[in-house]
Write a structure and sequence with these properties.
By secondary structure, the chain is mainly α. It folds into two domains: 58 residues; 133 residues. It contains seven helices and two strands. It has a two-stranded antiparallel ribbon with strand order 1-2. It starts with a helix and ends with a strand. About 6% of the residues have low confidence.
Amino acid sequence: MKKILLTICMATFLSGMIFCQENQQSNQSSSNFVQICNLIDNGLDENSQLIFNLSSSLTSSEQFTIYQLKEKNWGGAFALNFFLPFGIGSWVQGDKTSGQIITVGHLVSYGVIIATNIYLETYLLKNGFDELTEIPNQRLFVTLNTLGTIGIIGFYIYGYFRPYNFAKHYNQTLKSALHLDGVTSFSMIPYIDPVESKYGLIAEIKF
């Protein structure tokens, strides 16, 4: 009788230990999941190594879930850059460097054109000239207007191509940090076995 009670006690103790360990692992995994999401938001490139270390404790499904939540899409940024100046799409996408480049480029280009035309209008009103050929240094003004126009068009074109390249680089860096190199898709397939009354989900990872 004592052996039976002792066995029951040992079994209960071991079950409790296993449950506690599983609960601790689950809590640790949830904590790492949230921490990784915050690190990505704070800067993927700067925190990629720390994310790499933390994500090793996550399951494949958790890693891919983070990837799906944080991956960058280039379509919206392209549309915004196509219709709006100053790299609005790049700013929205999170590409601050390209956003700054396009914004400064457009400001300078527009500024050159506006300043040149304001000066020309002022000069014409003051001197009464109606033809551009009568203005001294006319080639300089034509050149500045041309350069400003080329600058505007050039930075628009840069803004069209940049969102795709940025998203491609960002998503590849994110995959590497999450140990998902080579993974192209992840899905959960329902599993039903009415014969043995087994039900569940099967994780499918495609490479």
